[in-house]
Amino acid sequence: MKKSTFTIIFVLLSFLALAQEKEMKKEIPQAETFTSTQTVSIKGKTVTLATATGTHLLRDENDKPIALFGFTHYRKTNSSENRPIVFAFNGGPLSASFWLHFGVLGPKRIEINDPSYTKPSPYKVVNNEYSILDKADLVMIDPVGVGFSKPIGEAKWEDFWGVDQDIRSIGLFIEQFIIKANKMNSPKYLLGESYGTFRNAGLVKHLQDKGIAMNGVIMVSAVFDLQHLLFGPGDDTAYLIHFPTYAATAWYHNKVKNKGSSLEAFLNDVRTFTQNEYAPALLKGDQLSTSEKSSIAQKLADYSGLSQDYYLKADLRVTNGEYFQELLRNEGETVGRLDSRFTGINEDLLSQNALTDPQSDAISTPYIAAFKDYLYNDLKVRKDLTYTTTASSRKGFKWDWKHKGNISWNMQVATTTLPDMTSAMKRNPNLKILILNGYYDLATVFYGVEHSINHMGLDAELKKNIIMKYYEAGHMMYTHIPSMAKFKMDVDAFIDETSK
Predict the structure, then answer these.
(1) Number of C-beta neighbours around residue 55 at 10 A
(2) Domain boundaries, given as residue ranges, for the chain
(3) Could you give the 3-state DSSP secondary structure of residue 193?
(4) Domain 33-227+365-498, classified CATH 3.40.30.10, yes or no
(5) Distance CA 356, CA 391 (A)
(6) Per-residue pLDDT tens for 49-105?
(7) Residue 354's pLDDT band (boundaries 50, 70, 90)?
C-alpha cells in the first residue's frame, strides 16, 4: 500500500475520532441557571435575596457528568459565608419541591382556603412572612426525575430512582454545591417532607460518612419505617399506629362521645388505650374471647367515630382507606388522607375504600399553577423548559425500594432508614433532629414516628437530641395559618440553637 494511502486512512480515522469526540460532547448538555433578585419581609425587616434557579452539572465520584440537577438557591445579599444554609426537598417518591417552596419556605407563598377548596385562578400570592430566609440561606432541591432534573451522558433514570440511588445523587449534589458556594464551614441543615424524611434519615449518615456533618435535620411529616404505612397480612403494626390519628380525626369532626379538655389530653388517653389494651388484643388473634373482642370493639368505636359493628366485621382491623370512607359516609362525604380536616363528596357510598383525597384535590391545582407562574415570571426561567412536578408522569417510572441494611438471607426484610439515623446520632452526639407532626395527617401518622423513636435504642441523654413538635393540622401543616406561624417559630428556634 502506498504511503499516500496510509496518510489518507490516518486522516480519515483522525477525522472520525474527532467527530465522535465532538458528538460525545454534544450529548452532554450544559447546565443553565437564571438569576433574579427577590425580597421578603419578615417581622418588619426586608431581606434581599440573590436568587439562582436552574440546573447544576452533577458529577459522579470520578467527576463524570451524570445529570442536570435542578435547584433554586436563595442567598441573602451582603451576608457572611458562615450564614446557615438549609437544603430542602419534598417526598413522593418522587415529587418536586414546589410544595415546601411555595407553601412555607420561600419568599412568596400561595394563600389557600384551608380546610376547604380554593377557587380557580387568579390565585393570591403574597409575601411569606413565615419564611426561614431571615435565618438561613435556602436551596430547594428537585431530584432527578422532577423539576428540571434529568440524567445525561451514559446515565439512565434507574441510576437515580431508588432508595440508595436517590441518597447517593442528592449527597453528590449537596457536596458539590457547598464547595462551589463556599459553604463547607457554614452551619448546614437538611429539611425534608414525607418521603423526604425517610431520605433524610439515610442521607444524614451518608453525608456524615463523607465528612459533611449536619448541624441539624428537620423532618416535616415523618416516616422512617415504611411498613408502618402498609397494612400487610399478619402484621398488626399499621393498625395500631394509625389508630390515634383516626381518633384525632373523629375528635375534629365531633364524632366522639367525650372530647375531654383538649385534643392533647384526649390523645394521651388514646395512646394509653392503644398500648395497653388494643395492642394486646390484636396480639391474641383468634385467642381473644368473644366478650373481650366486643369490649375492645366498643372502645375502638367510642374513640374513632366508627360503629362497634363495623369494627367487629373488620376483626378489629380498619385500614386507613376504609376509615376515610366510613367516618362520614352517612353525610355523603369522605375525609382527607393528607389532612383529615378536609372533606369531599363521597363518589360511591357503597365503596369500601375512598376513591380520592379531598385535601389533594383542594390544593394541588392552585399550588402547581401559582408556582409555575412564579417560576417562569419572577424567577425568570426560560419558558421553553418543562418543570415536571411528579415523576409518576414519566413513562416507566419505578422506584427501587431496596436499601443496604434491609436485606437478610437475600430477602428484603424491611424498608427502613431508621438504623441509618440511629447510627448517625450515636457517632455524632451533637446531631439534633427536629420532627414536626400533624395530628390530622393520615399519610405519615404521628404515633408511627413515636413508635420508631422509641425503638432506636438511644440512651436518655442522646434521645433528648430528638425534638418533637405537634400541630393541629395535617401532612402539609403549613396550609393552616396558625400552624404555619408555629412552624416558623419552631424552625427558627432550632436553627438558633444548633448554629452557634
Answers:
(1) 23
(2) 33-227+365-498, 231-359
(3) strand
(4) no
(5) 20
(6) 999 999 999 999 999 999 999 999 999 999 988 999 999 999 999 999 999 999 999
(7) very high
